[in-house]
Amino acid sequence: MDVSNILVNYKSAELELNCIESIYRETVHHGFEIILVDNDSKDCFKELVWGKYPGVRFLQLDYNAGFARANNAGIKISTGEYILLLNTDTIVLNGAIDKSIALLKKHPEAVGCGVQLLNPDGTTQISGA
Fold first, then answer.
1. Of 39, 43, 46, whose CA–CA distance to 63 is shortest?
2. Where are the beta strands (DSSP E) in the chain?
3. What's the pLDDT band for 45 if we cut at 50, 70, 90?
């Protein structure tokens, strides 16, 4: 398993489904898992996801633990060599996860990497230096 994609849900089912779809579509060269941590949304989100993506691992929290705690809970059950904390409003484009994993494997001294974020209209977003 190359990468564990950790996604945190709190009443954002449509965003999560779009994000998951883009991971499956754009990550074709590396093995991955998707761990979806639900912050007690109290909706039918799990059924929606599993109905379309039965391979997604689902971790249900019994309260809204917040973003950091939910990510930590997902990390604890992850099996990937690398971990990607992915915001629910993300749409993966141009094989970004595959390219990132290839870069990390090429540079084993590296401990992390980032990607260029884009605005909804495709323009470059200021996301770091």
1. 39
2. 3-9, 32-38, 57-60, 82-85
3. confident
